[in-house]
Fold each of these.
Amino acid sequence: MKKLILLRHGQSIWNLENRFTGWHDVDLSDQGRTEAVAAGQLMADAGLKPDIAYTSVLTRAIRTAFMGLDSLGRLWIPLIKDWRLNERHYGALTGLNKAETAEQYGDEQVHIWRRSFATPPPPLDRDDARHPCNDPRYAGLDPASLPATESLEDTLDRVLPYWQSQLAPALADCSTMLIAAHGNSLRALVKHLEGLSDEAITGVEIATGDPLVYELDDGLSVERKYSLRERS
Ligand SMILES: O=C(O)[C@H](O)COP(=O)(O)O
């Protein structure tokens, strides 16, 4: 049996300020740091021993992985960072306050942008400083693969090939894997792992700092799923 732990980063400073974040690189808030340490303790209490960990190239997820693994006593395991685990790109909404945006465009439109499967927020212009083409961390990538905005479907379209080419083969070779990532890159993975419909995934929320454990058979089919915070 394999164990896959999906961990959304702890609360970020922009989560606290209720701002659309996406690929903007904001750090954890004090509460987020506490959540990251607590996530490691929950994993320790559950006897989980990740052999390998993956995260995005965004500080809030990297720091959550580090702080969680540190409190678990397993800071020494391999930690691989990849942009394909980044949060979904929030396009021209990046940086805006979510409540103010709902006042301007209406709750329904904001809900569609946030939770519909296929409707992306308005895109960024390529010369906008928030466009990933203007961020040196993506300089080595084909500019055509860098998004100006993303729906959850677009996010799944980059997460799934990464799952298939890197994560699933690595999981087949180990017993326990930790993925510290983001609300929507993890929702994309959950959709795939659980075989959820485009409609069903719209109702799935993932809390910050709460390790979700999937027990998988050797063919990587899900046998059981539970939240460590709920079980504690
Ligand atoms: O990118 C963000 O703003 C959040 O981390 C996730 O946002 P959401 O709850 O609107 O999907």
Amino acid sequence: MSGRTTALTPPADAVKPERHPDAPAPGEIIGTHYDRCFGCGDGAPHGLHLVTRAGEGVRVTAEFTVQEAHQGAPGLAHGGVLASALDETLGTLNWLLRVIAVTGRLETDFVRPVPVGTVLHLEAEAVAVADRKIYSTATGRIGGPDGPVAVRADALFIEVKVDHFMDNGRPAEIDAALADPDQLKVARAFEVNP
Ligand SMILES: CCCCC/C=C\C/C=C\C/C=C\C/C=C/CCCC(=O)SCCNC(=O)CCNC(=O)[C@H](O)C(C)(C)COP(=O)(O)OP(=O)(O)OC[C@H]1O[C@@H](n2cnc3c(N)ncnc32)[C@H](O)[C@@H]1OP(=O)(O)O
């Protein structure tokens, strides 16, 4: 059973999200937006190292292999780690819209336990946009991309200006991110609705 809160039901005036013309082509890997991101960064030793690909429309797929550092119960993935994997996958959708947004609400159903060593096959789609609010949904399957659903989530992302990060982040990390020689990554981290 899944009892979604009304906050995750798009309002009547919501519209279908539109893929940005410059969004990565379907099948293309969407690289990390920040090296030290727990979800996708190469520089986060215990992170998820999620690899995400653009899909058709406003959809992405991602894979994440559960490591020993991700346990909650012995040999099983921690629920918060699985929620992080869903959050990261959902967050990447906003790059296809070319909108900077943060998670406002994330509702997660844990349907099956996920053992260490499992590859979680994630799929996410942005389903509606209303002003600054982006409604999206995701599933995580085990045993293959068509395997049984182990986790699923609905989310509400809120569009923000780049100032959100400038005003709230620690200066040391912001300066280091801005100095990244990979200018595409810097653009992804700090660009506002090009
Ligand atoms: C160092 C460099 C790195 C920087 C990276 C920068 C960018 C990244 C670029 C690309 C990203 C690519 C991939 C991303 C992958 C990552 C995924 C992870 C994403 C996260 O993990 S991100 C961290 C967790 N996240 C937060 O850290 C948010 C904390 N929070 C706030 O900062 C504020 O809370 C905020 C901004 C959310 C809203 O504040 P606000 O003042 O701007 O707006 P306001 O409150 O007016 O809300 C406007 C309308 O949204 C509704 N609304 C708001 N919140 C709601 C809620 N919770 N539930 C239901 N409805 C909600 C209101 O009801 C109103 O609705 P209405 O318009 O209908 O009245």
